[in-house]
UniProtKB/TrEMBL annotation:
Subcellular location as annotated: Cell membrane
Keyword Transmembrane tagged: yes
Pfam families registered for this protein in UniProt: BPD_transp_1 (PF00528)
Protein's UniProt name: Raffinose/stachyose/melibiose transport system permease protein
SUPFAM superfamilies: MetI-like
Length: 307
């Protein structure tokens, strides 16, 4: 028996070594790509953020000077506030609408077609969507034409007075279909007998949502929240194309963190080329992402429900 045990252990060791070698063979290319395209640029951005640099001349060390300037920059503070509004307010509205639509579509006959229609904006380029959104709300656009037809002599100047509100609404519209698709996939895997049992016990729709749907799709909700957090801090094309012009950036009142970084480097009629200052802002944005994702993982941590 002892000889058999020794023989088995001696044969499994080469197999374990072979598996480890194969594992590293497949993992190493991914790690190299991760290091080249993420770790190295992140470290470089951190180093550049400590300097004043226009991309061509020699760097001038400033220490934390760029970060201190950010605290006094009203445009940066406004863009940070807009980013938080899109992250928190937009996220709340997107998830409420997504869950409501998921519950409505769950038992609907043509739910696959409806889901495809809702998901359609996600397969169209954000620039195209922003242009279409602009045609709808411009001074002589479809909405104002409808208002004039209804007897409104002076319809609102949507793109002038309500630009950030329209950006907010447009981003909610674009993203809702994506999260409906994800949440519906999570809801579809819940066995029917849970809802049948709730019906037999006289549970209301709110009770079914609270005690069945949300607990059994919590892992999907948590993952979706992380995706939204990371994505909302990197929104760029929609705001740039919808709020800007052919030769200039959108008004600074509607900037977010991504547009602020672009505006400090290549954006605008006269590019700033303030790469050190922009790098400091990108480091702050990265810290935002890390902190919010860590908080989300902490707040949404629950034991997985098996069913």
């Amino acid at each position: 028996m002892a000889a058999l045990t020794v023989r088995r252990s001696s044969t499994t060791r080469p197999l374990d070594l072979q598996r480890r070698r194969l594992t590293w063979l497949f993992v190493t290319p991914a790690l190299l790509l991760y290091a080249v395209f993420l770790l190295v640029p992140t470290i470089a951005s951190l180093w550049i953020s400590l300097h004043a640099w226009d991309g061509l001349s020699e760097m001038t060390f400033k220490g934390l000077g760029n970060y201190l300037l950010l605290l006094e920059d009203r445009v940066f503070l406004t863009s940070s506030a807009n980013t938080l509004i899109l992250l928190l307010g937009g996220g709340l509205l997107v998830f409420v609408l997504s869950f409501a639509l998921t519950m409505v579509l769950r038992d609907m006959a043509g739910r696959r077609f409806a889901r495809a229609v809702l998901f359609f904006p996600n397969i169209v380029a954000p620039v195209v969507l922003s242009v279409l959104w602009g045609f709808l709300f411009q001074t002589d656009g479809l909405l104002n034409a409808a208002l004039r037809g209804a007897g409104v002599d002076h319809p609102p100047n949507w793109l002038g007075d309500h630009l950030f509100l329209l950006i907010f609404a447009g981003l909610v519209w674009v993203n809702t279909g994506f999260y409906v698709t994800i949440l519906m996939a999570g809801v579809d895997r819940i066995p029917r007998y849970f809802y049948e049992d709730c019906a037999l016990n006289g549970a209301t729709a709110l009770e079914r949502l609270r005690h069945v749907t949300i607990p059994l799709t919590w892992d999907v909700i948590a993952t979706s929240a992380v995706i939204w957090t990371v994505g909302s801090l990197k929104i760029f094309e929609f705001i740039y194309a919808f709020g800007g012009t052919t030769n200039d950036l959108p008004p600074t009142a509607v900037w977010n963190s991504a547009l602020f970084i672009y505006g400090q480097t290549f954006g605008g009629r006269v590019p700033q080329y303030a790469f050190g200052y922009a790098a400091a802002s990108s480091v702050v944005t990265l810290l935002f992402i890390a902190v919010f994702v860590a908080l989300l993982r902490r707040l949404t941590r629950r034991d997985r429900v098996q069913f």
